[in-house]
Structure formats: structure tokens, C-alpha cells
Amino acid sequence: MKHPFLAFAAAAALSPGLVAAQGVTADRIVLGQAAVFSGPAAQLGIQMRNGIKAYFDVVNEKGGVHGRKLELVTEDDQYESKVAPVASKKLIEEHKVFALLGYVGTPTGVAHLPVVTQAKVPLVGMFTGAEVLRVPMNRYVFHVRASYYDETEKIVEQVVSLGGKRIAVFHQADAYGEAGRMGTELALKRRNLQIHSIGTVERNTIKVEDAVKTISASQPDAIVMVSAYTSCAEFIRQMKKAGSGATFYNVSFVGSKALADALGKEGPGVAISQVVPFPWGTAIPVVREYQQVAKKASFTDYNFSALEGFLVAKVMVEGLRRTGKDLNREKFVDTMEKMDVDFGGFHVAYSPKNHTGSKFVDLTIIARDGKFLR
Fold this sequence. Notes:
This protein has helices at residues 4-14, 42-61, 84-94, 106-119, 148-161, 175-189, 209-218, 229-241, 256-263, 285-296, 304-323, 329-336, and strands at residues 28-35, 69-76, 99-104, 123-127, 141-142, 167-172, 198-201, 222-226, 247-250, 271-274, 340-342, 347-351, 354-357, 362-366, 372-373. By secondary structure, the chain is an alpha/beta fold.
């Protein structure tokens, strides 16, 4: 009769996945993304997924990570806080993912976080710059983008440098909008200024009439906008119809391509802060790599959101590679906290006390025909 331990060891040798970490087998690593894939903000999740999937496909074509292919499983959280926890639980408990990536949104992120933290599942690259998801630092969450405070600082700096002083804020009435409002307020305070006027809109709606009335009456020089592309587009259209001469500035979450498409002929001159390099450029190596990968995946409509998904995927894969073949979640987190990598013009660094990742911020404007200029 065989010794029970020897029998178990033999079974483990025949089936390496039997003793591997959840979501890890001899030939694959299952990763999950809970994001918005339906409703007014759907393009944000779709483009993030496009960027992630395109890079994973290239990695898999070359043999995967330490011989394991990457499998991406997605769940639609509808950009609704009440749906978010269910989506994360499904990924962790039913799909049994090893780690998570490419989440989208602040209010949903706030709802996802308790589930992720309790399960001690690593989450890489949230499409949000809100401080509430960064402070206090969470051991299991690694950001790949600059914060909304960084973005609004850049916007206010630009407006003031051009002589503007009356800066209004149009924001979504939730944690995301509040993060942008607070960032703008802090940036203005550093310059002995204050928010000129404020208007809000409910999430997943385009009911902007009250905000237009309030902000238009105050005649601002510029407006910092912190909402989804559908409501921002409607606000801009109605403000222009009301005769406003203000300059419109959006933070990156708006989704640049989605906003430009939604605005059409009303788009030229609208500004957007960006947390990734210019997707159509040729000078930055990682952007050229993104373009090649996107073409291979038949995504020729380069955009900021897909590039961010691509960069998030690169950070995830780098972490998996550095962790080694003996993969488990705690080892992965420890490895990520030692990461300091230039990905070819986009620098990402973490430490046990800082999971910010990047401070990169740039400004762009929508030009004619929905194109973008730096």
C-alpha cells in the first residue's frame, strides 16, 4: 500500500495545476477584468480590453509567460456601484482568476476594493486617478496612471499661464467627480484662487441643464470637466448654444476618442489631459510597439484608452515574468513592489510604501475631423 503523502506527491507531479495558486495551471494563467462594457461609458471598458487583449495575444503567440498562456476573463460592472462587487466576486469565486487588471471608474472602484482586498487578489491598473483609491495605500492595488490631482494641477497651471483666473468645475455627482473637484480646488488654492462656480450631473445621465444655467451665468474663462463622455459632450453643446466663450478642459477618464466622436463638429478646441503618451506619435518606443500590436489585432483606430490598456497589460506581464515560474499572489505582490522599469518612454516604479506607478501627464486638444493635437 502506498504512503498517502507519496500518492499525493505523485498526483501533484502528474497534475502541476493541482498544487498551483488559484488561476494558475501548468499551461495557463487566468486574469480578470471587471469594467464597463454597456451603457453610456461603455467605450472606456471596451478600449481598455482591446489594449489588454492585443498585448496578451502577442505574448501568448511567443509562448506566454514561463510557458503559461494568458487567459482574460471579463465581467460587465455597468459603471454602477451596486453591480461592481458582484462582478469582482464572480471573477474571484467562479472564474477563479489569479489576479485582476484594467478596472474602470472611481465609484465602481470604491465598491470593488473591499472584495478585492478581503480576497487578497492583486489588482493592476485601475482607469481612475482618484485619491480615495490611493490613500491609504492598498497592498494589493498597483496603479499605472497619474492621479486626478496630477491632472487637474496640469490643467490649472495651463489656464493660469494663459491669463485665466475664473475657473469653473462641471463634475459628476459621485466619488469620481468629487476627486476632480477637490484636485482643482487644491491647485487653485496653491495660486491663491478659488473655484469660480460649480455644476453637477448624475452618473449615467445627460441631465446637464441646471449645471449649464449655473456655470454659464458665472461667465468663466475655463471649465474643468470631470464626468463621462456622454454628459461632457452634452454639457459642451449646451454651453456653446448658451453663448459661452469658455475653454473646456476634461480629465483623461472622459475617454478622448469617445468624447471627440460624441462632439463631432463641436469638438475642435476642447482640451483633455492625458496620462499616457500620444498614441499616434512615432518618437516614443512603447507607442511604436503599441501601434504594431494594435495593427496585428486589427485595431487601427489608435486611442488613449486602448494604449492605457496595453500599458497595464505590459506592467502585469512584467510582474508575472519577474515573479518566476513558482507563481503565487503574495510573491507577485512582493515582486511588483521592487519594480522600477522604463517600458520605452513610459516609466513605472513601485515600492512597499508607494503603489502610484506613474506621474506622467500631458495636455491635448481635439482638432478638426476628430483628430488630436498635443
